[in-house]
Amino acid sequence: MTATLALGTYHCPDVALAATVAVAAGVEWIDTAPNYGAGTAQCALAPVLAAHPRIQVSTKVGFMTRETAADALTAGVLHRREAGIRHSLAPEFVRWQIHRSRSELGRRPDIVFLHNPEHAPEDSPEAQAARLMSAIAALEEAAAEGTIGGYGISTWTGFSTGRFDVGTLLSMARTVAGEGHHLRAVQLPVSWVHLEPLAAAMAGGGVLRDAPTAGIEVFASAPLHGGELPAMLTPEAVELVGDGLTAAQAALIVPASAPGVCRVLLSSSDPQHWNDAMRACARPPLDPSRLRRISDVFAA
What we know:
The structure is a single chain. By secondary structure, this protein is of the alpha/beta class. The chain has helices spanning 15-24, 41-51, 66-75, 80-85, 91-105, 125-145, 166-177, 196-202, 207-213, 229-232, 235-241, 247-257, 271-281, 288-298; strands spanning 4-8, 29-31, 56-61, 111-115, 151-154, 183-189, 217-221, 261-266. An eight-stranded parallel β-barrel has the order 1-2-3-4-5-6-7-8, surrounded by seven helices. Helix 7 (166-177) links the parallel strand 5 and strand 6. It is globular and about 55 Å long. It starts with a strand and ends with a helix.
């Protein structure tokens, strides 16, 4: 595979254990967020990151816990409406959360993702674009200062609903910082349940084609659909991927084979799960004809 496995901490009940097991299995990237683990994920990762400085880490800004919202209100960086929905892309909150995340992680994040920009309150497309642009400007400022390594967009439906595309994000980054911008990655669901990006790539377009062309890495999230996907795959579907595979391995191989995907985020604290996943992703990627057949049959 050209894609590598990374630890995603969203579904990890014990983030420190999951990180320790993942690093032992050979993982070199961990993805987290301030609201994961009921707000404890970043602090739980700090000792693992300190013990393994080669590990890269990405976090997010946008969603927040109730406690973080209260702290941000006290700090004067959050409006009460945003505290109510516990999501903000306001530049002052972005700056504040970055510094809080650095403190909790014990180091500079390699990437900070804007977390589901589509979750912002419904208003005009112009207001939505202005909100995203101001958040990108705050991230560019942090990257220029060296506070973060770079930034990206982590979205569940932003690309699939047309809220934004790679071209739009690049245009905003270039407007703020020119060709020296720090837009480094996008994160979106790619799986048997979310095959739309793969189908678009097989047709020659979409985010999986556009991002790599622009030098932007693609992180595939939710490859097992919250752990539900292996039970959903029929033996015939698994066989379509390859012989002798478990359903979980077949589920992982598809996003890992998708054009443009650099990292596949897996959430697990079971060493055997990681060993099985690593073996699956050590196989050659599925050829385009097989990927096209999977997307044609299962994306409908």
